[in-house]
Amino acid sequence: ETCAVNNGGCDRTCKDTATGVRCSCPVGFTLQPDGKTCKDIDECLVNNGGCDHFCRNTVGSFECSCQKGYKLLTDERTCQDIDECSFERTCDHTCINYPGSFECLCHKGYTLYGLTHCGDIDECSISNGSCDYGCLNTVGSYECVCPAGKKLHWNKKDCVEVVKCLPNAKPAPKAQLVCSKTGGIESCFLSCPSNTLFVPDSENSYTLSCGVPIQQGKAQQKRNATLPSCADSLAPPIKQKARFKIKDAKCHLRPRSKEKTKDSGKQAGLDNCQVTFVNLKCDSSKKKRRGRKSPSKEVSHITAEFEVEMKSEEVTDTCNIDCVRKRMEQKLQTAIKTLRKSINKQQFYIQFSGTEYEVAQKPAKATDGHEACSTGQVLQDGKCVTCSTGTFYSGEHNQCVPCSPGTYQDTEGQLTCEPCPSNDGQGVAGARNVSECGGKFNLIIKGLGQCSPGHYSSDGFKPCRVCPLGTYQSEPGRTLCFPCGGGLVTKYEGAVSFQDCETKVHCSPGHYYNSTTHRCIRCPVGTYQPEFGQNYCITCPGNTSTDFDGSTNVTHCKNQQCGGELGDYTGYIESPNYPGDYPANVECIWNINPPPKRRILIVVPEIFLPIEDECGDVLVMRKSASPTSITTYETCQTYERPIAFTSRSRKLWIQFKSNEGNSGKGFQVPYVTYDEDYQQLIEDIVRDGRLYASENHQEILKDKKLIKALFDVLAHPQNYFKYTAQESKEMFPRSFIKLLRSKVSRFLRPYK
């Protein structure tokens, strides 16, 4: 025997030796007992070929691959979870990564559609938001509204009568203007025990109101002011307005220093004036003056409005109502005169929560470190932060202090807290509104004392009455029960939902019950109902809609908008509602028009179009809208294997059309534009079968991060130097780098 004749009978390699021919086999094959034949070794039989997940035997070798949601590392053995949350645009709101998968979650007030997208829930479409009267949907939330003459109950759903005044209530403590003379110097201070509102209008001006005006104007209605008691006051109040000027001072409410407060202890000749309402506006914004010499000194103006209530008990036999009014007016005028003198000498202070504040200050004083933030704000992490609701700004401590039990504050940046209507000192610290006052709010927090579903009472608290037959209530703490409508009765008293109403027919999901016609009506397009026996359909989230009427699930709600971002260098196109199923009867058109001297490379990682529809859903890419123009790509099928190709024309017109038949996940197709000088190289790469031969290479074209890196280098070749050799090795399999390297070096050095 000799190798010269018929390869010595060997399958593969033959070698002549002294004893005859010797056959051998390449790596991946084993020599059979006949000493001639080579048989492929099935590496997968031993230890799964060292593969983490799947092992596939090939002729002379083997290939590892991974389960869905994992990627093969560059050692071509190990599988690693793909962290989908690290990609751009994975979820609209919150993304949670799991081994092999991920989940999208939405913020409160939003619901998930199309697997990854979040749309605003229209709560008003769900039983009118359970509102007693009107419902107003807002982005991420909703509000119940009431008709004129009624206001929202603390449960934020029911409407209750507006109470104008509180019978037998202790009147709110009045503001006091106290003026005194010490050693020939007049000083005044205004104490504000309740109904205070501080509004910083600008850096150099503010408005401050104290008390409740007798005829409440529109400006005051915004404020949740404590109601006046129903004690009769004699109309109309005494009103006076005065304007004061402070030279060389800026409008800044600042705490008065401790030393000064001590000095004001020795007071003589007190003038004490009880005031129902005071409104102060301090303004030191510079006004441009005519004339050459404009004064360099700061001038602040204070405008003060006072209201004093006339009290019936002050009328006597010797002094009738007109006499009382005159006396009060004189008293107020005297107080204002003294106030003017005290303001001139900068001896006017306002007292909130036991701290005295100077109304305006000389600029020289503003050198202290604490002056960095305006009043009502404190410094946190180098930023000025306004004191939140439930707290007040304490000038004495220069910090936001929670309201003490028995008081509340419903406005930011205030200097005091308001006393609760039932001021028994009970309740929680840091109350943010009247409803959080007192003992009842403790019950609300604990959920105790409220009427349970199926029950109601005049204020939503125990003792409660049961919902009568023909009505229901699904929520706790309500003041009413909703009627079934159409003369329907409930199976029992204390019903908790419309499903307890004995309807004439039982409606299946995708329908709602009409109480007037006693029929089941299909949910209109753009709505859905997943439950049996309901009397409403839920509006689709955000700007989504359904393909047909009678939808039973939020997954039928689809975004109708064509997706994608078209950039000069990189971009992508996306079927509407991707990665959820695309809608029926949709048409999308995209135009990719690259900059001069650039061509387009497209990668279709995977595409899902149902074939059952006889090509009813089609994606086509061609030069222009004309059906006869050069076509680069057209498909109406599902392909899970990726493909990369260059455009046959410089520009691309892309169209996606769907019919009313079956739907699918659709596609997300990225593209890159590259310098046309590289045309030959790019085509050489994308047309090479080895790019798609192995599953590893296919996975590269599906890997969003790797495609991004490849596209980055194709669009801007200088960015190649951003990636170190080590990084490239860690990103791409050896076989892929080898394939690219041989082509690039041949392209750059064709004659070597």
UniProtKB/TrEMBL annotation:
GO terms for biological process: signal transduction. It comes from the Eukaryota. One of its GO terms (cellular component) is cell surface. SUPFAM superfamilies: EGF/Laminin, Growth factor receptor domain, Spermadhesin, CUB domain. GO terms for molecular function: calcium ion binding. It holds the Pfam family EGF_CA. Residues 562-674 form the CUB domain. This is SCUB1 protein. It comes from Sagittarius serpentarius (Secretary bird).
